[in-house]
Amino acid sequence: MNQDNIDRYVCTALEEMRSSLKTLRPLADGTYIPKQVDVVKGTLFSLIEEAQTYVNRMENALEQEGRAKSVSLTIKKLKKERKELKAEIAKLRGDVEDKGGNLPEEQSNRFDYLEEYDMF
């Protein structure tokens, strides 16, 4: 596709298809000039391909937008779940300390690791 077609829309291609069809004027006996029919047919084929390209791009953009929304909702859900888990960890740590105990070194390091890499 050349640079001139970047700002074109499906509606423009469809309007040109309609315009091409209007140029076909039957002769007095109801027939058409073969050369004129060939030109219009060629124009219509290229405009149909152009319209298909625009529609494919539009569908692709809509699909990507839908995926982005889905990912965003998943991230939001996971952040909420993570926040709840961190609160539960803090509560459990407090419960252990209230009972006068300490977490085993291995368990304590796991929790510290989560806090150290708190990127979200």
Describe the protein's topology.
Layout: H1 10-23, H2 34-98, H3 105-116
Give a verbal description of the structure.
The chain is an all-alpha fold and 120 residues long. It has one domain. Helices cover 76% and strands 0% of the residues. The protein has 3 helices and no strands. It has helices at 10-23, 34-98, 105-116. The longest helix has 65 residues, at 34-98. The mean pLDDT is 78.
Supply database-style keywords:
120 residues; mainly alpha; 76% helix; 0% strand
Radius of gyration: 33 Å
* β-sheet strand percentage: under 5%
Shape: rod-shaped
Specify the number of helices: 3
Helix/strand-derived category reads mainly alpha
What is the tally of beta strands?
0
Arithmetic mean of pLDDT? 78
Termini separation: 42 Å
Order of helices and strands: HHH
Return residue spans where pLDDT drops below 50 for at least 5 consecutive residues: none
Total separate domains: 1
Largest sheet: none
Assembly status: single chain
Fraction of residues in helix: over 70%
Describe what is shown at a glance.
With 120 residues, the chain is mainly alpha-helical.
